[in-house]
Amino acid sequence: MFSKILIANRGEIACRVIKTAKIMGIKTVAVYSDADREALHVSMADEAVHIGGSPASESYLLGDKIIAACKETGAEAVHPGYGFLSENAKFCEALEKAGITFIGPPPNAIEAMGDKITSKKIAKEANVSTVPGYMGLIEDTDEAVKISNEIGYPVMIKASAGGGGKGMRIAWNDAEAREGFERSKSEAASSFGDDRIFIEKFVTDPRHIEIQVLADKHGNCIYLGERECSIQRRNQKVIEEAPSPFLDEETRKKMGEQSVALAKAVGYASAGTVEFIVDGDKNFYFLEMNTRLQVEHPVTELITGIDLVEQMLRVAAGEKLSIAQDEVTLNGWAIESRLYAEDPYRNFLPSIGRLTTYRPPSEFESEDLVVRNDTGVFDGGEISTFYDPMIAKLCTWAPDRAAAISAMSDALDAFEVEGIGHNIPFLSAVMEQDRFKEGRLTTGYIAEEFPDGFNGVELGNAAKKNIAGLAAYIGFHSQHRGFAEADTLDLSIKDVARSVMIGDERFDFDVLEEAVIWRDREDDFEMLMRVETDWGPGETLIRARVGDDHIVAQVTRKATGFRVRYRGADMNVQVFEPHVADLMVHMPVKMPPDMSKFLLCPMPGQVVRLEVAEGDEVQEGQPLAIVEAMKMENVLRAEKKAIVSKIAADVGSILAVDDVIMEFEDQ
């Protein structure tokens, strides 16, 4: 076994590899860019080497600097994590030439599977089910449109060297095929240095299900069940789980055996993932093979008990697999939620800045519950514009799916993040949806369930009543405590009236020492709601039982009550004495300014293209500008018919959130 390895990556995956290496007694070397000098993976490793500037092209993508760092520190092997150089065959060959072991598959397997055109041909030869499509090179837009018509819409336009949703578009007609081809080609060139594009049939209402394989250098290969990865946004996975709520044992076995056949066909050795799309009749088609550790690998580890990083290290060191196929058992259910620095209220656009608060839920492991948080950030750290916006991967495991979902809801409620926009409210909202709980998933889930984007969550009546009762209870008790400590007023809390306003809704309570009595003013009905909590004034996380319901919520004190975040809802909960609540209906409401005549930059980014000029008439849905952020090109479109009166930003301009790009006037 190796005595020292270098991790050629950053963020949570670098931290993840370091954890297993420490358990195995292997020393670790981190590499870092200018932007990552204070990063968590740097402090966790035994040694750290600076390798260049903040852009990945000046640091993490420079194989020669990685090799130099290995020689400087005496690292015998390199774990690439995912992204960056993890699927770069030339880097593997350079390591081999330098006498350094690559902790991953051989270069020929990476090269064969990394090219989506070649990989589909190999898959077909290995009798793996494949999607109909055109696997040749496509020269220009006209040819792309012609091929799309021959295949039949809808089609998927993909970068051959793509990954992570970059260089990928769905087209339903000729116009979308033209635009999709141009955008995919441009993104592929900037992200991968390879602008080759191919087109295949898009399977409607598909599920995205992948098989984890594990192979050694001695010809042994097994599969470790599947992961359901259908909940995606812009072709980027958001929530994953294992096993899939859709597959039966027969289909799982067929997919697993075909995945093993493909791995053996390319001489694979290490952990790898074979991705499939699966239709409603359980027909499955090969999508691609990822020749690296997947982001979502923790859910497989949780249901199998197998540490995939450990297995990669052992395989790279030449050991045989110690696990046979008939020894693989799937136990319980695991769910992973990817926490991104993306603002769901702004169509999930990237959000950068400092984490003024970062307090994840405590990691926990027992016979019937596991809470795991894989992260690469810390309280006070910074989310940079240079890299992927991932904050953490929050995972839960339980004996069954319903319990795993419930545990995830509680864990998300307890995850405190401030300073940037993040997608925790959205993740919480999905966990509460009946469709998700029933397992009716497709890759179109987010588009179908949130057709107008994410605009927050409206709690049901029962949940809202519980929050109101809790606010009445803690509001009065914190006030009473302040008076008691000041020793200026002797208050009795035996029967104190409080009114709670959540939006336009009003709830009336009598606050008791360990309960509240909810009073329905219209029906002259009352209900006792016992409250149990050890919350104290100043704390931002509250765990309580209200009646029969367990509540985990984030609470921030405000002048007239609390800001409460619970199950994806973000509420201004006001607590008044009843006579004050009576007067609230007369208070004026301040309206936000009208910004409909401006195109605002929705994220920090760079203007890479302007599609219109001053004086142009634009139609609803027409592209206006393209802004690049975190290596993704975002097309900004007109919301209505108008005339461009002023262009306020030039191509190349670096813009902050809400900077004006252009102004409009009505026709």
From TrEMBL:
UniProt cross-references to Pfam families, sorted A to Z: Biotin_carb_C, Biotin_carb_N, Biotin_lipoyl, CPSase_L_D2, PCC_BT
From which lineage does this chain's organism come? Bacteria, Pseudomonadati, Pseudomonadota, Alphaproteobacteria, Hyphomicrobiales
Which SMART domains does the annotation name? Biotin_carb_C (SM00878)
- Where does the Biotin carboxylation domain start and stop, copy by copy? 1-451
The cofactors named for this UniProt entry are: biotin
Which species is the source of this protein? Maritalea mediterranea
What's the name of the protein?
A: propionyl-CoA carboxylase
Reactions catalysed, as given in the entry: propanoyl-CoA + hydrogencarbonate + ATP = (S)-methylmalonyl-CoA + ADP + phosphate + H(+)
Family annotation (NCBIfam families):
PRK08591.1
The segment(s) forming the ATP-grasp domain are 120-317
